[in-house]
Amino acid sequence: MGNARDSRESRDSRDPKDTRNIKDPRHSAEEQGRAVGHPWREAQESAARAAAEAERLPRGQGWPERYTGPVLRRRGQVTPGTTDQRLLDTQGSTEWLHGDPWRVMRIQSEFVEGFGALAELGPAVSVFGSSRSAPDSPEYEAGVRIGRALAGAGFAVITGGGPGAMEAANKGACEAGGVSVGLGIELPFEQGLNNYVDIGVNFRYFFVRKTMFVKYAQGFVVLPGGFGTLDELFEALTLVQTQKVTRFPIVLFGNGYWEGLVDWVRDKVVGEGKASPADLELFHVTDDVDEAVALVTKEVEL
């Protein structure tokens, strides 16, 4: 008992600046890397022993620490084992599938897939509209005509790939011999890509999909639609207003449908100083297919 107490008192009275006996964290990682038989269990036991030993020392002296790549972890934040051990341990937990670091990789992969699929697309126009537009509705018919006219003008047609107005624009482009693109999204209640899509990419994340709509299009045509359509419309208007994108025409098709929104923007948003009068020039409204196509393609020289 006396020897143990003397040893502990000697350690407690050690000069805090004396670091000769503090182990380099990299040494402990190397020692754990040599473990055989049950490396994960031995690493856990080693970390537990180091933590228990450190608890008997003055705070800040001899506390376990480990570098995980560029990340330094100390004290209670030290995780047992090494990255390689966790990679090769097939018995480990699968919770990592649902963590933010793995989500970052999935997000990156979606950008890579989208860029790879669309980089060589050529001039294109994104067409938006309601997935609920019936095949016998005026906006569905307008979507077919717009898709056909855009293809005839040499533009690929990009839509959300769903039914309704999106399907209509894809159908028009496909039947006219143009390139028909569908950018789908994972939703709890929706369908896959419509049958008129020639190039299709499905996304998990809305913001990745939105990037593709803007990056690979020279303009937007917006048919009557709901919240999703309004989301795309106002995001595009914001990007143009803030000059995040330039020379990007936006055409609202259907005077009767968009009239109330335009009046509200002019009378309330602009009228009360929430936007400038010049912002009303960021978009055009028309009922004419030829005019819509001419407006949305005027900035592009084929």
Question: Can you tell me about this structure?
Answer:
This protein folds into 2 domains: 27-92, no CATH class; 105-297, Rossmann fold. With 302 residues, it is α/β, with parallel strands linked by helices. The strands form 2 sheets. Strands 6-5-4-3-7-8-9 form a 7-stranded parallel sheet, with helices on both faces. The protein is elongated, with a radius of gyration of 30 Å. The longest helix has 19 residues, at 100-118. β1 (65-68) and β2 form a beta hairpin. It contains 11 helices and 9 strands. Helix content is 46%, strand content 13%. The model is unreliable at 4-14 and 16-37 (pLDDT under 50).
Radius of gyration: 30 Å
Approximate shape:
elongated
Counting copies of identical and different chains, the oligomeric state is single chain
Largest sheet, in brief, is: 7 strands, parallel
**Terminal Cα separation, in Å?**
91 Å
Task: Write down the overall mean pLDDT.
Answer: 83
Indicate the CATH topology of the largest domain: Rossmann fold
List keywords for this structure.
about 45% helix, elongated, 9 strands, about 300 residues, 11 helices, Rossmann fold, seven-stranded parallel sheet, alpha/beta, about 15% strand, two-stranded antiparallel ribbon
